[in-house]
Amino acid sequence: MKFKCPYCHTQRNPSSASRTIRKLGSYYRKSDGQHLSRFWCFSCRKSFSAATSSPLKGQKKRHLNKTVCDLLTGGVSQREAARILKINHKTVVRKFRFSIATAKEELKEWNKKFPLCTEVEFDDLETFEHTKCKPLSVTLMVEYSTRRILGFEVAQMPAKGRIAAFARKKYGPRADHRSQARKKLFSEMQNFVSPIALIRSDSNPYYPKDVKRYFPKARYETILGGRGAIVGQGELKKLKWDPIFSLNHTCAMLRAHINRLFRKTWCTTKRADQLAGHIALYALLHNRRLATG
Ligand SMILES: [Zn+2]
After folding, report:
1. What distances in angstroms separate CA 234 from CA 13, 70, 125, 255, one per listed residue?
2. Ligand 1: distance of its center to the CA of 51 in Å?
3. Neighbour tally for 190: CB within 10 Å
4. Distance from Cα 70 to the centre of ligand 1, integer Å
5. What residues have a C-beta under 5 A from ligand 1, the ion?
6. What distance, in Å, lies between the first and last C-alpha atoms of the chain?
7. Cα torsion for 171, 176, 177, 179, to the nearest 10°?
8. Coil, helix or strand at residue 10
9. Strand 193-202's sheet: what is its strand order?
10. Is there a contact between 100 and 271 (Cβ–Cβ < 8 Å)?
11. Dist. CA 98–CA 115, nearest whole Å
12. What span, in angstroms and rounded, lies between the C-alpha atoms of 234 and 241?
């Protein structure tokens, strides 16, 4: 076996083990029933094992990592997941945070495997953090033909409508980060979307300028939004033919699978970054399912 010391990066050399790294017994990992060898590094005088440099180091319920993700992307709340798996709710939170740390990168890597998209749709999905007075906007881009999620960006926005004045009074003015987020998303999407693609969205007055800037050669179509259907999470529209159906269907799926995005739920987002992680986690699962059919 060839490996290095995780501390000083000394290469192991079996022919001169007494000068590099030698074995130092083994131990049994109770949580998943594995026997692991320990080693001793002569140059830095430290011991280590195969688990030392593992990202899973210190996890005692590593066998539940995938199940927790499956539950949380299947519409189960964090507390309900803890009850189902008979573990502490803080363990669920830790596992959730551990999984979302790499989810957005993984989503990018996944999308790199496909040829450039020639027809895409994008729009905003609205939710909130902590209270309806602090809305969040999720700009999402999907491929038209497959409904594959290409990317998304979460941004804060000020409250609108009847609640706006109250929100300003209670929480002060809230900056609008939607434009920045859209630009960030579009610049990232240049890696996945063909420059001459057909791009579709609803008719928001701010969209055309940004599309023109990042996709100057693309064909851009806007459509008028319809009223929400009774079923369909308010995302599926009461139209005979919804031109941005792929996007609205994906938004409805987010609303059906991520508890904090349910219409009428006790669960709310407390932190925007974790909402982003949660969506990335779901997007990965969503895209994998689409690929396997
Ligand atoms: Zn060492």
Report:
1. 63, 24, 11, 9
2. 15
3. 12
4. 39
5. 5, 7-8, 10, 41, 44
6. 40
7. 170
8. coil
9. 149-156, 135-143, 117-128, 193-202, 219-223
10. no
11. 30
12. 16
Is the alpha carbon torsion for 75, 80, 84, 87 positive or negative? Answer: positive
Q: At which residue do the structure tokens 């529209």 appear?
A: 237
> Measured between alpha carbons, how far is 276 from 78 in angstroms, rounded to an integer?
16
Report the alpha-carbon distance of residue 246 to residue 243 in Å, rounded. Answer: 8
Residue-wise pLDDT for 89-145, tens only, equals: 999 999 999 999 999 999 999 999 999 999 999 999 999 998 999 999 999 999 999
Judge contact between 128 and 135, C-beta under 8 A: yes
Q: Using one digit for the tens of pLDDT, what is the confidence trace for 265-285?
A: 888 999 999 999 999 999 999
Structure token digits, residue 209: 């300028």
Domains in the chain and their CATH numbers?
A: 1-58 (no CATH), 115-292 (3.30.420)
Ligand 1 centroid to residue 57 C-alpha, Å? 18
What are the tokens at 67?
Answer: 């199940």
